[in-house]
Amino acid sequence: MSRIIIIVVLCSILTVQAKFPDDSKPCNYEDKQCIVELFNKLFIDKVVQIDPLKVAKMHLKQGVENPVRFDLIFKDNALIGLSKIRFTEVKGFAKDFAQKHELSINVKNLQMLGPYIAKGTLILLPVSGTGESNVTLDNTQMQITFTGNPFEKNGETYMDISNLELTVKPGRIYYHFTNLFNGDKLLGDNVNAFLNDNWELIFRQVEESFRSALKKIIEAIIKNVFTKYPYAKFFAE
Ligand SMILES: *[C@@H]1O[C@H](CO)[C@@H](O)[C@H](O)[C@H]1NC(C)=O
């Protein structure tokens, strides 16, 4: 059904620390409050280097059911702010983890900075340009679900993940694109103002492809942490 093409290439793939941080006390299985606190420690640059995250290429397309084409390509961008993610709720994480897990996350400020190429028509407005962009998402709520899949490595059991689904609700988005229309200042200023005045409507046009792109990033982060340490390491026995 969907013919959206999503390309996300992460270049500097996350480095995960070799040692499990000693001051992170393992939790009892299914102990939501403890797991929330543990994840907030683990995912905040302590264990996984995610800030800034280099995104070699992200390609967003307007919703497929829309006859008007719009393409937005970000190349060699930096995604800044993922180290400030806050887990607010978890579900799952039982001893038997071959089941569905849920994570609720808040990201205060997420900035995507770097070169862009835009071409097409966005809500009846022709938009084209090549320059630098700043897309900033404030106060974003994310809901993540995935299935845990056990695998064995050196006699220990690790969790791989599959079927990751993600919903993204930004509280506000700020857009700034330099050099729109070959640097025509008046047109460029007008389009930037239009984008910011209609941030939510614009987001809905590219939401599906943005969500797929972010899904790949989030999946890589979660996979990196859980395939690095045995599952039991996160929990008290
Ligand atoms: C990007 O835009 C946001 C929101 O306008 C702003 O707060 C931030 O300073 C900008 N970042 C850079 C690097 O210009």
From TrEMBL:
<keyword id="KW-0090">Biological rhythms</keyword>
<dbReference type="Pfam" id="PF06585">
    <property type="entry name" value="JHBP"/>
</dbReference>
<feature type="signal peptide">
    <location>
        <begin position="1"/>
        <end position="18"/>
    </location>
</feature>
<comment type="similarity">
    <text>Belongs to the TO family.</text>
</comment>
<dbReference type="InterPro" id="IPR010562">
    <property type="entry name" value="Haemolymph_juvenile_hormone-bd"/>
</dbReference>
<dbReference type="GO" id="GO:0005615">
    <property type="term" value="C:extracellular space"/>
</dbReference>
<dbReference type="GO" id="GO:0007623">
    <property type="term" value="P:circadian rhythm"/>
</dbReference>
<protein>
    <submittedName>
        <fullName>GH14735</fullName>
    </submittedName>
</protein>
<dbReference type="InterPro" id="IPR038606">
    <property type="entry name" value="To_sf"/>
</dbReference>
<keyword id="KW-0732">Signal</keyword>
